[in-house]
Structure formats: C-alpha cells, structure tokens
Amino acid sequence: MGAVAGGPAAPCRGARIGISLYTAHRAGNERAMRHALPHARPGQVIGLLGGSFDPPHEGHLHISREALKRFALDRLWWLVSPGNPLKRQGPAPLVARMAAARAMVDHPRMAATDFEARAGTRYTAETLAALMAAYPGVRFVWLMGADNLAQFHHWQDWRSIIETVPVGVLARPGQRISARMSPAARIYGHARIAGRDARALGRADAPAWCFVNVPMMDISSTHLRARVAAQTGENVSGAERNADCTGRAASVKFGS
C-alpha cells in the first residue's frame, strides 16, 4: 500500500539511518553475510513480515510495532528476501538490505533475518515449511497488507499458506471493501477472526485470518530510493509493490 496522501515528510532519524547504510552498502563489497538465525522457543508466537526492504524505513517499524500489539505476538521477524531472479532490475544486494534492516530494528522483540537466502526458498509456502522444520513447536503468523490479500489467490500454493499458519492482515482505514471482496476472503470467510479478537490469532489453528485497520505513515521505500538517486545520481531501481514471481509483494508496502 502506498503512503497516505500529503506531501513527503522530512526523513526521520530511522529513515536517515536506512538511507545512509543503504547507499554505503550498495557500493560496498559482496562478501557473504553469515548471521545467527533469530532465537525462538517452542510455544512462542512469531509474526513474519516478508519483503525486499529496499530500503527499510520507519514505516516498516511502525507497522511492525502495530502487529506486535494488535496480534499479541511474542516476536516479529523481518524476512529480508534475497531478490527476484526473474526481474531484470532487482533490489539492492542482500548484504546492503540486511545491514540496513538490522540497523533499523529498534525493538527488543524484533529481528531481521536472511532465512530465505539461507534456506534457499523462493515461495512463501516453501519458506513457511522450512521455518516450521527449523523451529518445531513455534507458532508462526504470516503478516500482509490488504492489497496483498486482494491478490493472495495468485500466490504460489496460497491455500497451503493460510491452511498452515494464521494470517494477519493490516491495512489503512477504508480498504476493507477490496479485501473483503477478494477470492481468498470469500473462500475462507468461515475462518475469519473478528478484529476485536485479533489478539487470539496467534493461538488459533489454521486456517485463520484477521483483518485490522492501522494508521499509516507518509513514508515509502519508493520515495527513499528516489531520494538516494537524487543524492547520488544513481538510478536506484528496486522491486515494486506488485506481487512478484515468488508469490508475494516484492517490497513491503504497508504504508511504506
């Protein structure tokens, strides 16, 4: 989802950190990144926010904090995607986006991970299977925006996703109609949890999904990439918000 209407706001401290690290690492070396995987205990509820984070910014933090609170998550992980090999021009190198994402994460219950690159998965359904194998007993919740719910039925093995883990849908006020009219929402209407019961989502058995409205921030990855291009003269092209070949939004666009 795009940013709310209005002129672009001056970048906050978090956005400036993201921009500076993003530009520094785009021109940096390509050495492989080896970070320890996030820790999780059996029984914990972990929210998963997947995307390119190209670059990460305050909007990502905002929606992550909202998800932690609304869905009563124990932890929330940013799944920084390795990129789309079928796109002619993909996002910045993973090493750059991971460094920027780790610098942006400012919450003790949040973490950024390159799990998908480590596991070699391309599709969300594959990633979830790999995560559940790596973290037995952990309860995962997939997080998405209302725009992604509208096209969810186009994702690879989308039924497997919603029948494997609960799905939390976050959106700006006013986007309920398109989300409710989506094929996925109609097919799994019986599995919907009311917004007032959102905190129970993580403990629900799949299939289960919940739609909540959240306020959005006037900041976007697209805007920040344009700012980088203006500052450096480099044509910074990243994946756009439409669903990519991996069956998910190439960039996290929850007001971002």
From TrEMBL:
Task: Name the reaction it catalyses.
Answer: nicotinate beta-D-ribonucleotide + ATP + H(+) = deamido-NAD(+) + diphosphate
The entry assigns this protein to a family as follows: Belongs to the NadD family.
| Its biological purpose | Catalyzes the reversible adenylation of nicotinate mononucleotide (NaMN) to nicotinic acid adenine dinucleotide (NaAD).
Signal peptide feature range: none
Which terms does the record give in the GO molecular function aspect? Answer: ATP binding; nicotinate-nucleotide adenylyltransferase activity
The protein's matches in CDD domains, at most eight in alphabetical order, are given as: NMNAT
> What protein am I looking at?
Probable nicotinate-nucleotide adenylyltransferase
Q: Which organism is it from?
A: Roseovarius azorensis
Q: Which domain of life is it from?
A: Bacteria
Q: What is the lineage of its organism?
A: Bacteria, Pseudomonadati, Pseudomonadota, Alphaproteobacteria, Rhodobacterales
